[in-house]
């Protein structure tokens, strides 16, 4: 019985019960022979629809496996994951956030070792350096689906209107502001997280020091945080970018923001409407101070990953499902680039054959992948509380409520305390 495309897990269960109550011996026998496994993910309606459709195809390909789907939007998914991981009731196969590797598997034993299932999961489609993002203590806890990095998107139409090239350095942005600001146009824009990560890139380039050492300990001192705060304040005071509190994405659509900084995976979400109105938006190079190579100071991370529960009672079937989601043509074509440009060479080949490896997100992904200077991001750099503290201390300086020395010392103390508490 082929189920409707948008049927929910609840309706699937109801349909199965209905079949049993009707005395259909063939259906009953099939259900008794099936192995039932669970799959969980987060996302919007579009992601839910294509994933459910993909599961129907998987079940047709493997009629002895039944996939029960659990899904919701991000915040609900995150909250339920905490409960399920604590109670050992997580799904057999699950989409996870990269930060959860350290949170739920600090010793590498929090998830199933996927390399033990290599007879069923084709890991040769993934470069070893990409698999490293899913390793904890040498154990392959998860496989990344796609990579993500903060990327500069430039409305080339607006820049060309002012006789300017796509910016390559921070100074290029300040020079652009001198000619754009009279019309209320900002050369670049960013939300709070993007601003924080961009300021880290600038401070690393200026100081020659990484914010964190290789062992994860804090390397920046008060001086480097002073550079970060001073950089943001200079950008705002010189009309290079709007304050993050006044950042409005609609201004990307109308060209008031001639550029923005966002994740590769958010390329279309942020710039799609501007392109629909006729603007030529392109991914720019990773900005530098003109003294370092592009990519220095910038970081990349997995957009998301798939893991298998350490408690699964059906590792073979879970691995078969994982391989289908990562490497199959069916899943690749349905998913497209909605979760980013796939790392799997198999999935990427299928998308190329279907003509789906095009567009702004793909171009941004190419810029990211061809830049060897980008470093692996520590999840600590996305600490939301620290980002808020950074913006608050920048505002103290902008509104003359404190000195930059006081603000940078407060930020340094907050980051050091947060780092030492890990």
* CATH secondary-structure class of the largest domain: Alpha Beta
CATH architecture of the largest domain: 3-Layer(aba) Sandwich
Low-confidence stretches: 1-24
Helix content, binned percent:
40-55%
Strand content: 5-15%
CA-based gyration radius: 24 Å
Q: How many distinct folded domains?
A: 3
The count of strands amounts to 10
CATH superfamily of the largest domain: Periplasmic binding protein-like II
Q: What would you say about this model in short?
A:
By secondary structure, the chain is α/β, with parallel strands linked by helices. It contains 18 helices and ten strands.
Topology:
Elements: H1 9-21, H2 25-33, E1 35-42, H3 45-61, E2 65-72, H4 74-86, E3 93-96, H5 100-104, H6 128-131, E4 135-136, E5 139-140, E6 142-155, H7 156-161, H8 170-180, H9 192-207, H10 222-237, H11 250-253, E7 259-263, H12 267-276, E8 281-283, E9 299-308, H13 315-327, H14 329-335, H15 345-353, H16 360-369, E10 375-376, H17 384-398, H18 404-420
Parallel strand pairs: 1-2, 1-3, 9-10
Antiparallel strand pairs: 3-9, 4-5, 6-7, 6-8, 6-9
Helix pairs in contact: 3-14, 9-10, 10-17, 10-18, 13-14, 14-15, 17-18
Descriptive overview:
By secondary structure, the chain is of the alpha/beta class. The protein has three domains: 1-33, no CATH class; 35-147 and 302-368, D-Maltodextrin-Binding Protein, domain 2; 148-300 and 373-420, D-Maltodextrin-Binding Protein, domain 2. The chain is 46% helix and 14% strand. Strands 1, 2, 3, 6, 7, 8, 9 and 10 form an eight-stranded mixed β-sheet that branches. A two-stranded antiparallel sheet has the order 4-5. The protein is globular, with a radius of gyration of 24 Å. The relative contact order is 0.15.
């Amino acid at each position: 019985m082929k189920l409707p495309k948008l049927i929910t897990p609840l309706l699937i269960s109801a349909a199965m019960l209905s079949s049993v109550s009707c005395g259909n011996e063939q259906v009953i026998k099939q259900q008794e022979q099936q192995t039932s496994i669970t799959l969980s993910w987060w996302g919007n309606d579009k992601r839910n629809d294509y994933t459910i459709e993909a599961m129907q195809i998987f079940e047709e390909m493997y009629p002895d496996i039944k996939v029960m789907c659990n899904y919701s939007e991000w915040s609900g998914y995150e909250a339920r994951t905490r409960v399920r991981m604590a109670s050992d009731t997580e799904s057999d196969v699950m989409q996870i956030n990269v930060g959860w590797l350290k949170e739920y598997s600090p010793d590498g034993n929090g998830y199933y070792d996927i390399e033990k299932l290599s007879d069923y999961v084709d890991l040769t489609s993934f470069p070893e350096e990409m698999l490293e993002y899913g390793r904890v203590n040498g154990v392959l806890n998860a496989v990344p689906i796609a990579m993500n990095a903060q990327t500069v998107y430039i409305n080339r139409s607006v820049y060309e209107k002012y006789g300017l090239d796509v910016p390559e350095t921070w100074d290029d942005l300040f020079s652009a502001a001198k000619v754009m600001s009279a019309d209320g146009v900002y050369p670049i824009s960013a939300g709070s997280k993007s601003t924080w990560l961009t300021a880290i890139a600038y401070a690393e380039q200026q100081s020659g020091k990484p914010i964190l050492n290789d062992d994860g300990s804090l390397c920046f001192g008060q001086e480097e945080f002073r550079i970060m705060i001073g950089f943001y304040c200079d950008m705002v005071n010189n009309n290079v970018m709007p304050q993050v509190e006044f950042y409005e994405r609609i201004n990307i659509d109308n060209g008031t923001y001639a550029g923005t900084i966002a994740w590769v995976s958010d390329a279309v979400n942020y710039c799609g409407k501007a392109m629909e109105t006729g603007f030529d938006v392109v991914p720019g190079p990773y900005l530098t101070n003109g003294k370092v190579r592009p990519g220095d100071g910038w970081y990349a991370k997995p957009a998301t990953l798939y893991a298998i529960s350490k408690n699964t009672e059906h590792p073979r079937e879970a691995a078969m499902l994982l391989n289908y989601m990562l490497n199959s043509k069916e899943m690749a074509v349905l998913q497209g680039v909605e979760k980013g440009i796939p790392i799997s060479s198999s999935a990427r080949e299928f998308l190329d054959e279907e003509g789906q490896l095009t567009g702004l997100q793909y171009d941004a992904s190419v810029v990211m992948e061809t830049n060897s200077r980008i470093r692996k991001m520590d999840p600590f750099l996305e600490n939301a509380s620290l980002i808020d503290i950074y913006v608050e201390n920048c505002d103290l300086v902008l509104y003359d409520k404190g000195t930059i020395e006081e603000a940078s010392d407060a930020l340094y103390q907050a980051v050091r305390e947060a780092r030492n508490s890990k």
